[in-house]
Structures are given as C-alpha cells and as structure tokens.
C-alpha cells in the first residue's frame, strides 16, 4: 500500500501579534491560507521507519530525528514501520511553514497507512505552533499560539505569487525583535466578494513580524517592492516570520505572468505562482 500526502505552503495573509504568554510564546491573530505549491510525501508500509529526502530544496534539510516528519511519526508510538520519501520543494526557515506542513502531511499519511487515529491536539502542537493549522489545510482564522483554529468566510478566487530571496530567517530571532507585543487583533472578518475587495481589506491589516524580520534581513524590503511593482499585483506582504513574501493577483494567470517576469529579473530568487489550496 502506498499513500501520497501533499504538504502545501502556509501563507499568513495577516499576522497580528496580540500578546505574550508566560512561557514566552506569543498570542497571534492570523488569516491563514494555503497554496497549491508545496512538498510531496510518499509513504509505504515497511519493516522499519525510514526517511529519504530529495527534490530541488533538499539541501540542508535534516534526514535524521531532527526532521519534523520523523518527529511526527514518533507521536504514534511503537508500531509498524514505514518508508517515507519527502520531495522537498519549499525553502526551509522561510515563513511558509515548510517543516510544519511536512509534519502535518506525515501525520495524515501515517494515520491512513496504519489505520490509526491522529495524535491528540497537545501532541500535534508540541511539533510546532504551525502544525495544527497545517493538519487540515484551507482558509482559517488562527489564534492562541496557533492551536485555536476558527472558520473563515469563503474566499474569492485569486492568484498567488511566492518569492523568497534565499535568506534563511530563524523564527525565534524575529519574535525577539518585536518592539510591541500587545497589538490590536483583526476585526470581525467580512465576506470578500472579489480578489480586489479582499486585497483592499488586507491592506488595512498587518504582519506585525515584518519590521523585526526586515531588521534581520533587509532584502525583504527589496522583495516586497519587486512584488508590488509586478503587473496586476493587488497586495504585497510578508508571510510568517519571513523572508518569503507573497503577492495577490486577480487570478492564477496574472500571478504566473508576474512570476515569469520576476524570474527573469531576479534569477537567484525562488519564485512560484499558484492559487489557494484546500484539502
Ligand atoms: C510565525 C508563524 O509562522 C505564524 O504562522 C508561527 O507562529 C511559527 O510557527 P513554528 O515555526 O511552527 O513555531 P515553533 O517551532 O513552535 O516555534 C519557534 C519559535 O518561534 C517563537 N514563537 C512561535 C509561535 C508563537 N505563537 N510564538 C512564538 O514566540 C518561539 O520563540 C519559538 O521558540
Ligand atoms: N521537513 C523539514 N523541512 C524543512 N526543514 C525542516 C524539516 N524538518 C526539520 N527542519 C528544520 O526546521 C528548520 C525550520 O524550517 P521550516 O521550513 O520548518 O520553517 P519555518 O520557515 O520556520 O516555518 P514557519 O516560520 O512558517 O513556521 C529548518 O532550518 C530545518 O533545520
């Protein structure tokens, strides 16, 4: 038996930091979507548990017990084995939850392969604050430190471009650089009737991690300017703790056109176009 699991990129369309818990973790209010751009896992029954990593972004990704895929597998406790192949396409330490989405895809895939229930919510959260939201990819409002997943209104169709300048930005350093931790949450979410209406609403919201991330990696400013200047762009913003930034376009074709032009002018950057993804 072979199971395939897709690990889509997570995008924080907004990321408001609204407080801090006593253990140091920050309280968030974030509108999260996923893109049809991501890593692919293939899982097969086997005597032992093993992981191999290949693909264009495999370089530097751990293949041992530090990999979140193996940490996810460990949550099931002792049991049958599995040979897991990870085709790595998303850049790591990039603010688009690559490792978290891999972990969530491994949980879904192993539960299907082994006919087991998913581990409980606390165990899932122990893998990382972004793992709960990655378990059932689709548009949601995420609160708490990442464990509160609330429904979001249906989104209009739109296109997405993701751009990473090749600089890894460690998440803890960005949270440490925050000047204010008690920022305003999002208001109630309206019904967005078109990509343009959504982009206009988003423009009034924020990613509070952008200033400290830009202090860590000033190239983020260049990325945002390049996206904003691309044809058809309705909004440019950073995702998560960076350095990946996204552009919103009226449709996928417009995002693909912008991506072709940006790849030409910035051959060293990772540039992908797509559309929202729901499992
Ligand atoms: C910034 C986001 O990407 C937004 O979706 C996530 O909150 C980060 O999720 P993640 O990378 O899965 O986070 P974790 O691996 O749990 O934590 C990495 C580090 O980020 C900081 N962290 C993370 C999440 C959170 N709500 N508050 C935090 O302060 C902590 O310093 C933590 O040590
Ligand atoms: N499957 C994996 N893919 C990528 N990195 C992994 C994986 N498992 C563990 N890691 C480690 O996790 C680190 C963070 O990478 P990851 O892609 O999870 O990050 P992220 O950008 O912090 O996500 P976000 O901030 O959006 O939650 C990497 O530097 C790498 O050493």
From TrEMBL:
UniProt domain GHMP kinase N-terminal: residue ranges: 67-127
Listed InterPro entries: GHMP_kinase_C_dom, GHMP_kinase_C_sf, GHMP_kinase_N_dom, IspE, Ribosomal_Su5_D2-typ_SF, Ribsml_uS5_D2-typ_fold_subgr
UniProt keyword terms in alphabetical order: ATP-binding, Isoprene biosynthesis, Kinase, Nucleotide-binding, Transferase
Keyword Transcription regulation among UniProt keywords: no
The enzyme's E.C. designation: 2.7.1.148
Catalysed transformations (reactions): 4-CDP-2-C-methyl-D-erythritol + ATP = 4-CDP-2-C-methyl-D-erythritol 2-phosphate + ADP + H(+)
Top-level taxon in the UniProt lineage: Bacteria
Enzyme class name: transferase
Pathway: Isoprenoid biosynthesis; isopentenyl diphosphate biosynthesis via DXP pathway; isopentenyl diphosphate from 1-deoxy-D-xylulose 5-phosphate: step 3/6
Residues covered by the GHMP kinase C-terminal domain: 200-258
A Pfam cross-reference name: GHMP_kinases_C
Binding site for ATP: 91-101
Gene3D superfamilies assigned to the protein according to its UniProt record, in alphabetical order: 3.30.230.10, GHMP kinase, C-terminal domain
Annotated catalytic residues: 10, 130
GO MF annotation, one: kinase activity
Family, similarity comment: Belongs to the GHMP kinase family. IspE subfamily.
Physiological role: Catalyzes the phosphorylation of the position 2 hydroxy group of 4-diphosphocytidyl-2C-methyl-D-erythritol.
UniProt name for this protein: 4-diphosphocytidyl-2-C-methyl-D-erythritol kinase
Name of encoding gene: ispE
